Amino acid sequence: MATTPVYLDHAATTPLRPEALAAITAELGEVGNPSSLHASGRRARRVVEESRESIAAHLGVSAGEVVFTSGGTEADNLAVKGIYRARRGADDRRRRVLASAVEHHAVLDPVQWLGDAEQADVSWLAVDDLGRLRLEWLEKEIAAAPETVALVTVMWANNEVGTIQPIAEVAALCAEHGIPLHTDAVQAVGTLDVDAGTVDSLALSGHKVGGPHGVGAVVLRRGLAVEPLIHGGGQERDVRSGTLDTPAIAGLAAAVGASMRDRGERVERLRELRDALVADVLATVDGVTRNGDPHDCLPGIAHLSFEGCEGDALLLLLDAAGVECSRGSACSAGVPQPSHVLLAMGMDPVAARSSLRLSLGHTSTRADIDRLVEVLPAVVARARRAGTAR
Questions:
Q1: Domain spans of the chain?
Q2: In the chain, pLDDT over 70 holds for what percent of residues?
Q3: What are residue 369's phi and psi, to 5 degrees?
Q4: Which of 163, 280, 281, 287 is deepest in the core (most CB within 10 A)?
């Protein structure tokens, strides 16, 4: 009889919370377009607006600043491209985009696209060996010509190594020069103390907090000019047109609320589990290095490098042993590629390819760690026999 796999990939997606499932199923049998004026439409609109108000309250902003999207990727694209276009349209000198070098591809790729397609002047902000942006480096970039900066984008916490960025300090520096700051907070919402009112724009995603796939939101500060990417019926402040998915939005709000209510207890439990995971792996397997900041980091992420191994080999061997995790980096055409995050942190490409991300969530248990530690020595030994590509 097949056993249930041990799931250690919560940073990729985490299981649906019961509260979200209940909210979604309560709406699936209902009818009504939230933009319709009849009774069914008004009922659906009430669900949407109550969900918006709930999310806004948890994030410390007004309801009118929450714009629903299809997920974190669309939220990041809307903010990055929309703010850039609006800022440059108002003043053609504003062509510079400053982005940290460790952003998720949902920010990394739109920023690069602006450079390639719309002649934006892109500066990738360096990070230290823990993956953290140093404020003095950003300050130097801005000071060179603050009037030419269209926007700054720095993620709240890194999705691969878990390092938390100094967002409050970055926001204060940007505000001093009147430059909008966008932050990808997909990994932070529901886990860290996130005050969206400290930034100009913030992205979140449903399936990272125990909500459904295919729904998210971008918080846009009132008065912030943003060019829409999708044109149509004028929904969502005419910034993001399209019929709203009422069941998914209800599920998103329920998941955000649930993750906020149990955050204190859950974060403490995840931190203890993660520390136990790291300690047990280090005690069981030689040649393992932990990456990222070991203190100022997300509580559920352990990012480890295994000397002499290919990360893809480790991932597949663990999967065969019933343990699911991720590399946290891209693989192109079957050829292992080192993570851009680890390279930005100064890691050697071979070492970068030897890494795994083991991430915990609201359903994780001590038994999950025990199973990982049980199978890991044989997995690492086999991966080391196979060696690394050069």
A1: 18-261, 263-386
A2: 97
A3: -65, -45
A4: 163
